[in-house]
Amino acid sequence: MSENTKVNMFVDADSIFFKVAYSAKNDKELRVNYDTFCRRMELEVTNKLMNPFDDKQLLAPIYAVKGNDNYRKKLSSDYKSTRPDLDQEIKDKLNFLHAHAMHKGAVASTGMEADDLVSIWAYEAREKEEQYVICGIDKDLLQIPGNHYNYGKDTWTFIDDLTGNYNLMLQCLTGDNSDNIKGIKGIGPKKAAKILEGIDTPADRWERVIKEWEDNNLPRHELELSKKLLTMLTSWKDYENIRTHLQSKATLRKPHDPQKQDVKTESVSGLSE
User: Fold this and answer.
1) What is the C-alpha radius of gyration for the chain, rounded to an integer number of angstroms?
2) What is the pLDDT of residue 5?
3) How far is it, in rounded angstroms, from Cα 101 to Cα 14?
4) DSSP of 58-86, one letter per residue?
5) Separation between Cα atoms, residue 10 and residue 8, nearest integer Å
6) What is the pTM of this model?
7) Which CATH architecture has domain 161-273?
8) pLDDT tens digit string along 74-111?
């Protein structure tokens, strides 16, 4: 007897919350609209990726939501600092939807954003040679290889490894205004694409990005920070490395206590390596 074939569906649910919060008037509508949106999205994935004549295929949707805290804000206090405050009514609706999604089985991880979880799951599924689709609207997700369904535009895209790297390098040139991540002033998506035109390898693209920052008299350490903020996590080890890095920084910042033994410190290797 053959085993069931799983089709993983990894969803960044945080963006769904905003879509629903601005359209629903009360708690009941919030629940109904969120659940309806999710069912329609699952039906879209089923129709697109699953064989209706194969009763051994199973859709395995899993929804990611942001956890408490955010490691990127510890890397840079400027991260998302320019976003306007939301009305209290919208905040209450978002909190309600977050709790509702968690009650229905959504997953959060302390320190991570939803798209980081989606990225880790996708890389794990690829390692296991399992079929998967990434569902979201955030352009950061386009770093991740695989099938993508944009539930905001109702569009499908396939991203291979080189395209994922290319999308990350584009953002290293442009930055991300919505998240307050620094790029090169005057370089938008079209100009960034022109700069990277004809460069096919990740190493050569990175060197070209470095040169562009240097030509604009921008510090290398600011580029390295932007890259860290823009890059999606690809494994749990990535996150452990970041936590270790942040803990080391916190230790270095503690005021010196002359009654305690001096501790020798060593520089922490860059997370962009």
Assistant:
1) 21
2) 84
3) 10
4) EEEEEEE---SS-HHHHH-TTTTTTSPPP
5) 6
6) 0.88
7) Orthogonal Bundle (1.10)
8) 999 999 999 999 999 999 999 999 999 999 999 999 99
DSSP structure string for 206-222 = HHHHHHHHHHTT--HHH
Pick 5-159's CATH classification: 3.20.20.150, 2.60.40.1120, 3.60.10.10, 3.40.50.1010. Answer: 3.40.50.1010
If you count them, how many residues does the chain have? 273
Q: State yes or no: pLDDT of 218 exceeds 80.
A: yes
How far, in Å, are 12, 25, 114, 136, 138 from residue 118 at the CA level? 7, 29, 6, 9, 11
Region of residue 158 (left: phi > 0; alpha: psi -120 to 50; beta: else): beta
> Residue 67, exposed/middle/buried by CB under 10 A (0-12, 13-18, 19+)?
middle
pLDDT of residue 138: 94
Contacts of 141 (CB under 8 A, 6+ apart): 12, 115, 118, 119, 134, 148, 232
